[in-house]
Amino acid sequence: MEMDILSSAFLSALLVIVLIDLVLAGDNALVIGLVARHLPKDTQRKVIFWGTFAAVAVRAVMAIGVVWLLKIPGFLVVGGLALIWIARKLLDPQEGGGDHKVAAAQTLGGAIRTVVIADAVMGIDNVLAIGGAAHGSMLLIVLGLLISVPIIVWGSQLVIRLVERWPAVVLLGGAVLAWTAYGMIVQEPLFKSWLAAHPTAKPILVTVIFAIALAPWYSVHLQPKHKPLVVLLPGLLLWLLAFEAAEDVWHLEVDYLEANSMRDYAIQAARWFGWLPIALMYLAWRGRSAPVAAEQTAAK
Q: What is the pTM of this model?
């Protein structure tokens, strides 16, 4: 269906598409900027150019095949896992997320590869949103793709400048990717009905995703005495949420105000104190393994 380009319906749809691009194309700009931030200036321009080209090309292809892609079982889960991997890669100092820089000749190819994968995964939402806003108008879809180009180019350059001034912006980028991954996974048709029937599963899932995606940054930037918190805090949250899930699935009473039997009180004791021996064993294991790791690093 084509609309008159001077009609209010066309102009309002175009405005919606601009807003969609500002929100969703920003994700692509964020990834490109984070991937390219440690490269020389001339190489950064190449990554921004090819990353933008990949983003637009991927969206053009997806505009044709996105409906078919979404019918593939597990497609959104695979995409979500890919974003988690990309987030870890961006936050890993060995991959450029810290103070260690990889040789530019090797990094250019790796950076473009990472950007292309991210574009392919993150472009799904953009294509679906623009396709819906365009109401079948191919002209609006093409305009949506063209409008996204300057947003991605300028956004990538802005991200690079922000990271140079405030390195902690990298962590925010990882969080955006982790949240996008969570959103894709919970929209997977294979799990959607199950998640709707078990609402406590979503907090558990988002905790696991954020813990896995952001762990490389925390493990590098925290002081050694605080590094166990990278595991202990998400672990404690998962422990408590597991009891909420048990209440949901097996109808156990986990609220101490509602406890009325010895079994209920035993469950409460396990809920609030059962994690302590596990945490102590983890700390003891770290205490024994840390000197060994230090000796191995010194030997190298």
A: 0.68
